[in-house]
């Protein structure tokens, strides 16, 4: 490791509170790796939660590692600066598809063979989990020995009861795959393809393995506390104690995988969360509430009051325009929040009905007033373009809506005698597995570029409005990986050999990326991720897609075993 990287690792380590250090001998040694840089990984509550779970087992020692910030640096752990090859297990925690490529870079820097088939004794067992994996693990299946498909709380303890240090890799994996739901070992499954390139079959090649892998989930999340284990200045939240208040989302936006793969939506009780606040305020004065539907939490206003009585500044990971109350805005204002985010997602009411957003223009405008009148000066607006059935008229409506928001924003700001800024974030729509839009092709980059340019030009001369957008190439790669099958492993290998030069990689790839990105899937087509059973009936997703084309909404998930989607039954 270069002296600069070593100094930075020490800087991170010295700034932390709460890291666990155990004796090296006498434990199963796990290197938990986030495939991106430290600042991003340590801002991820899921990563921290797994670290807590692993170190909560007496038999396990867990240390953390991240993607180094310089290309020449090897990968070593924060706690002891050991090499990944020294550990029994390397466990990747992956939240985003674009980080899949970093897995290869990390394995290479660790001096390990990239392909799972080339690793054996004395190499570590390489595992992966996280939401990106249980949406679609196939693009990295060539490099991973086994995947955790589901929520770690229901799997980790049993995994280490079955794990036998020193046993042959195949024997270990067979034992675990046969006895632990949610474990997927790619080497034990075979895929075949039709002449046209679509998936023909996918089945186990070893006896005693299931045809489908059942996603594991925790039915009552109030039985555990999911919150920060380590505080650090070097994160996006600067020593903020993060608390997960909910898992999943009841609203069923048709583009959002979290609203489907985390079904049923689950909320923690206020009494459970109060205990987390008690722990957090003993360490810091910053508390962050995390969840896909924080403002839907029963008792959220009461919870804010509890935190603020203890002197804590609070922040939320998400707020819906139709659930934004003056009390919540007041709580954010008291905590020093300067910017609140609203996600209309679509500019026109028509497109919001297509995606089942469930909010109206009046609610969006009312939320704008509530935010500014409550003393928060800046607003960020999140929109998508390239959504199914979208026309240029719908794109023009984004500009029109932003101007209406600005009018309300300025009127409320003048009363407060302080005018802030509106930031408009425009993001290309990427179709995701296990959503009603999983069959939809991604729009062409040329068309997306035209739409984004139209929005930026339409708002370019508007004072107090700034626009930004996600790079189209990044969204293109995200679509390739999220919709890919096993053969995409070859493209990732090529990207790694090209040192992340995706333009060169896609140009020279023997596989046509458009086959995965821009091709409409058929309802009866076997999809690369169909072997994962999230409990959702495909017929339900098809009906939701058909309702989208008719601009018909669906009610939020009632969370009471209604039987409509299949998860609870």
Provide the descriptors you would attach to this structure in a database record.
alpha/beta; four-stranded parallel sheet; Rossmann fold; six-stranded mixed sheet; 19 strands; 20 helices; TIM Barrel; globular; 569 residues
Short description:
The protein is α/β, with parallel strands linked by helices and 569 residues long.
Describe how the helices and strands are arranged.
Elements: H1 3-14, E1 28-34, H2 38-41, H3 45-55, E2 60-66, E3 89-93, H4 100-109, E4 125-129, H5 131-135, E5 146-148, H6 156-162, H7 169-179, E6 183-184, E7 189-193, E8 199-204, E9 213-214, E10 241-244, E11 246-247, H8 258-261, E12 266-267, H9 270-281, E13 286-290, H10 300-309, E14 313-316, H11 326-334, E15 339-345, H12 349-354, H13 361-373, E16 378-385, H14 392-416, E17 422-428, H15 445-459, E18 465-469, H16 472-482, H17 488-497, H18 502-508, H19 513-517, E19 532-533, H20 538-549
Helix pairs in contact: 4-17, 9-10, 13-14, 14-15
Helix count equals: 20
- What is the CATH topology of the largest domain? TIM Barrel
Arrangement of strands in the largest sheet: 2-1-3-4-5-6
Span of the ends, CA to CA: 52 Å
Sheet with most strands: 6 strands, mixed
Query: Any idea what the CATH architecture of the largest domain is?
Result: Alpha-Beta Barrel
Number of domains: 2
Global Rg: 24 Å
Strand content: 15-25%
Q: Describe the global form.
A: globular
Range of helix content? 25-40%
Category from helices, strands and their pairing:
alpha/beta
* Count of individual beta strands: 19
């Amino acid at each position: 490791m270069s002296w600069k990287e070593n100094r930075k690792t020490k800087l991170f380590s010295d700034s932390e509170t709460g890291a666990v250090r155990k004796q090296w001998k006498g434990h199963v040694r796990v290197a938990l790796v986030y495939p991106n840089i430290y600042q991003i990984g340590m801002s991820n509550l899921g990563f921290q939660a797994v670290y807590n779970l692993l170190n909560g087992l007496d038999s396990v020692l867990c240390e953390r590692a991240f993607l180094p910030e310089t290309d020449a640096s090897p990968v070593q752990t924060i706690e002891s600066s050991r090499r990944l090859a020294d550990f029994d297990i390397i466990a990747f925690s992956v939240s985003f598809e674009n980080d899949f490529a970093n897995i290869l870079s990390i394995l290479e820097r660790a001096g390990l063979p990239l392909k799972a088939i080339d690793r054996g004794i004395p190499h570590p067992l390489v595992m992966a989990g996280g939401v990106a994996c249980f949406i679609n693990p196939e693009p990295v299946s060539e490099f991973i020995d086994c995947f955790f498909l589901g929520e770690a709380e229901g799997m980790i303890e049993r995994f280490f009861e079955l794990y036998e240090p020193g046993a042959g890799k195949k024997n270990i994996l067979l034992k675990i795959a046969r006895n632990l739901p949610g474990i997927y070992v790619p080497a034990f499954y075979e895929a075949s393809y039709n002449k046209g390139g679509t998936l023909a079959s996918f089945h186990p090649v070893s006896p005693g393995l299931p045809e489908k892998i059942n996603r594991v989930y925790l039915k009552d999340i109030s039985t555990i506390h999911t919150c920060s284990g380590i505080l650090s200045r070097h994160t996006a939240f600067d020593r903020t104690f993060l608390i997960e208040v909910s898992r999943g989302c009841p609203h069923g936006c048709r583009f959002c995988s979290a609203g489907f793969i985390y079904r049923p939506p689950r909320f923690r009780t206020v009494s459970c969360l109060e205990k987390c606040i008690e722990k957090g305020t003993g360490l810091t004065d910053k508390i962050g509430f995390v969840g896909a539907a924080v403002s839907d939490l029963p008792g959220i206003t009461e919870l804010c009051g509890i935190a603020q009585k203890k002197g804590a500044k609070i922040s939320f990971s998400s707020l819906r325009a139709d659930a934004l109350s003056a009390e919540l805005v007041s709580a954010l204002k008291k905590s020093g929040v300067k910017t609140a985010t609203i996600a209309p997602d679509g500019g026109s009411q028509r497109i919001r009905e297509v995606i089942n957003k469930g909010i109206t223009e009046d609610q969006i405008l009312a939320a704008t007033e509530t935010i500014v009148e409550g003393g928060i000066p800046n607003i960020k607006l999140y929109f998508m373009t390239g959504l199914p059935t979208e026309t240029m008229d719908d794109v023009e409506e984004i500009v029109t809506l932003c101007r209406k928001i600005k009018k309300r924003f300025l009127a409320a700001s003048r009363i407060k005698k302080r005018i802030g800024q509106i930031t408009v974030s425009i993001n290309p729509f990427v179709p995701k597995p296990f959503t009603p839009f999983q069959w939809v092709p991604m729009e062409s980059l040329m068309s997306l570029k035209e739409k984004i340019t139209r929005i930026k030009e339409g708002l370019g001369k508007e004072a107090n409005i700034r626009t930004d957008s996600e790079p189209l190439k990044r969204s293109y790669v995200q679509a390739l990986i999220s919709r890919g099958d096993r053969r995409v492993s070859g493209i990732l290998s090529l990207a790694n050999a090209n040192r992340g030069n995706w333009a060169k990689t896609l140009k020279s790839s023997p596989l046509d990326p458009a086959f995965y990105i821009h091709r409409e899937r058929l309802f009866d087509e076997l999809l690369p991720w169909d072997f994962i059973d999230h409990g959702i009936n495909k017929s339900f997703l098809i009906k939701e897609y058909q309702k989208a084309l008719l601009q018909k909404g669906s009610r939020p998930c009632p969370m009471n075993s209604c039987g409509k989607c299949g998860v609870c039954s």
